[in-house]
Specification:
This protein is mainly alpha-helical. The protein is 51% helix and 3% strand.
């Protein structure tokens, strides 16, 4: 094998996350500190807005610094922000499916494939900031509009995980909170 064949680009170094994170619905996260089971689903909209504001502060940093990975296998701050933006977008689609259909099956999403295909590390921080704020607000507004009986509606992932809108909201909020911890080191 030649040297060029043996050299992986930084984007290739990320090890895909294959964990089943649904355990956060049962116990607090020992890393970020979020006690997801104790979060009232009706608080998620406000938490999304607060989280998005924190990401805007992160994205106001130096562009080169935002693209720098702490190590080759860990996303940069910009890559994490792009991921959070896309999580907000994806979860809005999934929430709408749950509200509009009976027991929908969510389309699969490969976050690592998306990061590579969308070239997260090459995106402009100021553009990502605007998109993240917009996606976070749209998702927060959608959760605010959920009526009492809609919190019990269900949706399923292809791996067999079943969510109600209520558990879906709590599961969701852990992701951007945890990734903000990944970037800032600050626990909730």
């Amino acid at each position: 094998m030649s040297t060029s064949e043996n050299h992986a680009s930084p984007d290739d170094a990320i090890v895909p996350d294959t964990k089943d994170w649904t355990w956060v619905l049962e116990r607090p996260c020992p890393d970020c500190g979020l006690d997801t089971p104790a979060v009232p689903a009706t608080d998620v909209a406000g938490m999304l807005r607060d989280n998005a504001r924190s990401w805007l502060a992160v994205l106001a940093g130096d562009g080169d610094g935002l693209r720098r990975r702490p190590s080759p296998e860990i996303w940069s701050d910009l890559e994490y922000a792009c991921h959070v933006r896309d999580v907000f977008r994806l979860f809005l689609v999934r929430l709408n499916l749950m509200l509009d259909q009976d027991g929908p099956l969510f389309p699969n999403w490969d976050q690592d494939e998306t990061a590579a295909a969308e070239r997260y590390r090459e995106q402009l921080p100021q553009v990502v900031a605007g998109e993240l704020a917009e996606a976070g607000e749209a998702l927060a507004a959608a959760f605010e509009a959920v009526s009492d009986e809609q919190w019990r509606r269900t949706g399923d992932r292809s791996d067999g995980a079943r969510f109600t809108v209520e558990t879906f909201a709590r599961y969701l909020i852990h992701d951007p909170v945890h990734h903000l911890f990944d970037v800032t080191g600050e626990r909730v």
